[in-house]
């Protein structure tokens, strides 16, 4: 039996959780960094049989892979005299860190 | 040496922490999900000798076992013309997920 | 490969994170206890080669060791008739708990 420790960005956490659950994995969601009003990471613990580790890694890769996105800055609040052309900025979002650890015992009470 | 990773409901966390401490276990309390104003889970790490794992599991089972409780809904705030009879609702509370992992080293600084 | 799980006090977390990063370790910062307005612990996961465990432990010891500090209480807000001499109080700050666990796999997505 293995414990998969996955640290994923908050924005990908909901989707990954849904996917893992849909595939019958039992996920324990830990907490997020940052706390009140601040985005951060979600840590998930997944206890799986040895032969299921590959599937979990595949789902993490599909749903949390680090990728580029175009972010268009919102128009400034205060008025400007000229014409404002917002420039889309390329940002990196998502990404996951995964540790797989051998587990002696797994219990639900 | 083993690391017991216990994820318990917030409502059971205080009692379990007291019991583990009373039985001389050194517990490291991680954080809770949900954060501000939201109930969640508390993660505890307990570093123990191999022969103590059973005792820790016993204490978790005693203090955090998933169980049914009757919850009586509070009376409604706004007035009603008829007689209000609150129906107790059966809810599941508590429950714990436990992983036991082999530990190479344990240090306190 | 090893996973170093370090639980350090919030006040030492920033410095340790800087030191570990400076020494090329890849640190995953989990979350803090307490949450909103309450100080607590920061948990760091560091995936390292076996021969690097000693260096990580050394950096944790240097930056997070439990130590005594003199805390001078601030002057009282309301006026007093006599002379106020603040007494410095010795408090224990810092300290870290470290678990080293064997890791099967480590991935970045
Ligand atoms: Ni799917
Ligand atoms: Ni007892
Ligand atoms: Ni240095």
UniProtKB/TrEMBL annotation, chains A, B, C:
Domain of life: Bacteria
InterPro entries: CdAMP_rec (IPR010375), N-reg_PII-like_a/b (IPR011322), N-reg_PII/ATP_PRibTrfase_C (IPR015867)
Matches recorded under SUPFAM superfamilies: GlnB-like (SSF54913)
UniProt name for this protein: Uncharacterized protein YaaQ
Species, as recorded: Tindallia californiensis
């Amino acid at each position: 039996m293995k414990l998969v420790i996955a640290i994923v960005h908050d924005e990908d956490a909901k989707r990954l959780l849904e996917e893992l659950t849909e595939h019958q994995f039992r996920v324990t969601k830990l907490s997020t960094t940052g706390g009140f009003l601040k985005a951060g990471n979600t840590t998930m613990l997944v206890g799986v049989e040895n032969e299921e580790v590959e599937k979990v890694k595949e789902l993490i890769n599909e749903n949390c892979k680090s990728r580029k996105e175009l972010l268009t800055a919102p128009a400034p609040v205060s008025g400007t005299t000229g014409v404002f052309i917002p420039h889309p900025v390329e940002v990196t979002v998502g990404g996951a860190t995964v540790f797989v650890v051998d587990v002696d015992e797994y219990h639900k009470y």
